[in-house]
UniProtKB/TrEMBL annotation:
This is Cation-transporting P-type ATPase C-terminal domain-containing protein. The keyword Membrane applies. The keyword Oxidoreductase does not apply. It comes from the Eukaryota. Residues 235-472 form the Cation-transporting P-type ATPase C-terminal domain. Keywords: Membrane, Transmembrane, Transmembrane helix. Pfam families: Cation_ATPase_C. InterPro entries: ATPase_P-typ_cation-transptr_C, ATPase_P-typ_TM_dom_sf, TMEM94. Gene3D superfamilies: Calcium-transporting ATPase, transmembrane domain (1.20.1110.10).
């Protein structure tokens, strides 16, 4: 059910190949065996069409002109090494990923090299009974058994010799994994190891996909913020240092923590897409729209929070100046009637310039501050909100389809630790930057109002997570429908010319 089709390539004839397939638990019924040697008499249906081809040229022509049934069978008889390699190439031409498992002491070097992934198995000698010499299944020697007992085995260590080990290592050079099978020292379950390797590989692929998508979502948010700054003529919501640190420090750190996501319980029950189907069935446009809905609204909220805090801080500074004798002349003319829409209408620079000139000429008087104080405060507030939103969004990437409530935040303890340290460190750095920009004198205006905390820290992250979960739910519905389609295509062996 994991989208893995086991196939046996046997040099024997049809009967022995079917017997071997039955012992391995493979299906041996209808449309299950093909001979790689061209048959003298081909099987035809009532319409005179060949049901299953035999021989490499006929199989290749059948897959191009008729259907892909020859690629779906479980057993291939009369398979020499060259024929097996040609059949593997046919599978690869039809976008199949081939994993080859074979003996390390057989001439399988070229076959291992032909496959996408290869696993070599060094099989030890089979212990033989001195009486039957291997004609029946051996049993373990009982403790205390005498040397002339009925079941006394002949053990051989031939494969442990240096020349055999060297031959096995040379044959296994194209292989990604090497396994051993011993009858005396305990056996290593090759298929079990292979199953776990495939499971871990799928988990890594899913995690890498989540890492890339999360980083792209964060980068898109930053791009939207910078674009809106240029379109609306806003002051810079984030400094260049902010953007550099977020792009190359924060986002990679949080995204890489997603590599430690746990495997989904349904991971080995899902069928992956083939390369030829990725562009049509994966629907990249639909995915881009879903992930845009998950990330772009947070960028708009960061812009709104920045403008709101900047206007509040700048109004406070203007109020401080209005109470001084300096509120005359060019400053009063430049800043009279200051409103919030000045930030998006392009009228704010003249007032900010007049404030800077006044602060530079006033010396160290506390009631006249540089407008950079309000700017730095708003920028640090916007950067803090961006970090909070990205960390919260990261927890919705614990799995592409499973809900956050189903998976649980603690399923990735590394992400929890990284999120805590990131928020703590960024909060400390933001507070330090505000102190350096606004001076050591504390004022209650330096803290955002409680309404801002409730709206931007309390309500919006929960709303963003809810939107993200809704998009995941929609993506999950499409995924379930796609899995049903892929399962039907994977399980059927009914070709165009097959008998009904």
């Amino acid at each position: 059910g994991a989208g893995i089709r086991f196939q046996v390539y046997s040099p024997e004839g049809e009967k022995r190949t079917r017997t071997l397939g039955a012992q391995l638990g493979l299906e041996t019924g209808w449309n299950c065996l093909i001979s790689l040697e061209p048959a003298k008499v081909e099987q035809k249906n009532m319409m005179g069409q060949v049901v299953l081809p035999s021989g490499i040229p006929n199989i290749r022509r059948h897959t191009k002109e008729v259907d892909n049934v020859p690629l779906l069978v479980s057993m291939y008889s009369k398979a020499s090494p060259w024929r097996a390699q040609q059949m593997i190439s046919i599978l690869q031409e039809n976008a199949e990923c081939v994993t080859c498992v074979g003996s390390a002491l057989q001439p399988n070097f070229e076959t291992f090299r032909q496959a996408n992934i290869s696993v070599s198995v060094l099989v030890g000698n089979v212990p033989q009974c001195r009486r039957c010499f291997g004609r029946r299944e051996p049993r373990e020697q009982r403790p205390g058994q005498k040397s002339n007992a009925k079941d006394l085995f002949i053990f051989s260590n031939t494969v442990m010799r240096a020349e055999y080990q060297l031959a096995a290592d040379l044959t296994s050079l194209p292989c990604a994994l090497q396994a051993r099978h011993s009858y005396t020292n305990g056996e290593q379950r090759t298929l079990g190891v292979l199953f776990n390797a495939i499971k871990e590989a799928r988990r890594c692929v899913d995690c890498i996909l989540m890492v890339i998508i999360h980083y792209i979502c964060g980068a898109v948010e930053l791009a939207v913020i910078v674009a809106l700054q240029a379109i609306l003529c806003l002051p810079a919501p984030l400094e260049g240092l902010h953007i550099f640190a977020l792009l190359f420090v924060l986002l990679p750190t949080v995204s890489f923590a997603l590599l430690f996501n746990a495997a989904s319980p349904q991971l080995m029950k899902e069928l992956p897409l083939k390369k030829q189907d990725e562009k049509t069935l994966a629907q990249p446009g639909r995915l881009m729209l879903l992930y845009t809905l998950r990330s772009v609204p947070s960028a708009l909220v960061v812009i709104a929070a920045f403008v709101h805090d900047l206007h509040r801080m700048f109004e406070w500074q203007l109020e401080q100046v209005r109470q001084t004798p300096e509120w005359t002349g060019s400053l009063a003319a430049a800043c009279d009637g200051f409103e919030w829409f000045w930030w998006i209408s392009g009228q704010w620079p003249r007032c900010a310039t007049a404030m800077s000139e006044l602060a530079a000429g006033s010396g160290s008087r506390a009631n006249v501050r540089e407008p950079t104080c309000a700017m730095a405060h708003a920028q640090q507030w916007g950067a803090l909100l961006f970090v909070v939103y990205e960390v919260g969004l990261a927890f919705t990437f614990l799995d592409r389809y499973d809900s956050l409530l189903t998976r649980g935040p603690l399923s990735n303890k590394v992400l929890c630790s990284v999120a805590f340290l990131t928020l703590l460190l960024h909060t400390a750095v933001s507070a330090l930057m505000v102190v350096l920009a606004c001076g050591h004198e504390w004022h209650e205006i330096h803290l955002p109002r409680w309404e801002s905390w409730v709206a931007y820290i309390g309500i919006w992250p929960l709303f963003a997570i809810a939107v993200s979960e809704c998009t995941k739910r929609r993506d999950r519905k499409y995924h379930v429908h796609l899995q049903k389609t892929l399962r039907v295509l994977f399980n059927t062996r009914l070709g165009m010319w097959s008998p009904k």
